[in-house]
Amino acid sequence: TQLQKYVEAETSLKAAMALDPKRTDLYQELAKVYYTRGNYPEAINAVEQAHKAGVQDGNTWFILGKGYQKTDRANDAIAALNKSLELDGKGAAASQAWFAIGDINLSRQKYPEAASAFKSALRLNSKLVRASYNYAVAIESATPDSMSQNIANWEQYVRLAKGNPKEKSNVDVAAGHIKELRDKKSKMKPE
């Protein structure tokens, strides 16, 4: 099973670390195993050990930020994710780091900050469907009376998500919401 593979990976990595504790890459790999298994405190611990051993790259800070996010340490998560972006702002994890920052800010109802982060994620990867959805939510929450902008953002999400089976129910809801916004806009004075 998948769980057994992670247990075996953890055992192998710990054995390798005992043989060669200076192999800092092993701490990073162990952190990934812990994170994937949902053991976020151990993932955080493994990354902190990697940092103490001298590994300071964007990927370790990303894992640390995600671990903090999963353990409800929002401020620490944002700081770690920002450090990840500082070290590797164009790397593979950068769009996901921006997405996580947006997600944290959205949950804290910091809508302009969330929208900015989702927009940064979309600049790096224009196909991030969930970032497009969350961007539309954040902008509409921040500026509910900007009907034209909100309609455009929801239409952008629908265009992006239309062929994605996982997003079908959200696309249907968004299409209905666009209709509501258009109706509301038609009854308002021009923006």
Which features does this protein show?
single chain; 191 residues; mainly alpha; 10 helices; elongated
Task: Walk me through what this model shows.
The protein has 191 residues and is mostly helical. 78% of the residues lie in helices and 0% in strands. The chain has ten helices and no strands. The protein is elongated, with a radius of gyration of 20 Å.
What's the structural blueprint in terms of helices and strands?
Blueprint: H1 2-19, H2 24-37, H3 40-52, H4 58-70, H5 74-88, H6 94-107, H7 111-124, H8 129-142, H9 147-161, H10 168-186
Helix pairs in contact: 1-2, 2-3, 2-4, 3-4, 4-5, 4-6, 5-6, 6-7, 6-8, 7-8, 8-9, 9-10
Question: Low-confidence parts, pLDDT < 50 over ≥5 residues?
Answer: none
Portion in strands? under 5%
> Can you summarize the main beta sheet?
none
Mean pLDDT: 92
Instruction: Using the alpha-carbon principal axes, give the shape.
Output: elongated
Helical content class:
over 70%
Count of beta strands: 0
What is the string of SSEs from the N terminus onward? HHHHHHHHHH
Our count of helices gives: 10
Radius of gyration: 20 Å
The structural class is: mainly alpha
Report the span from N to C terminus: 57 Å
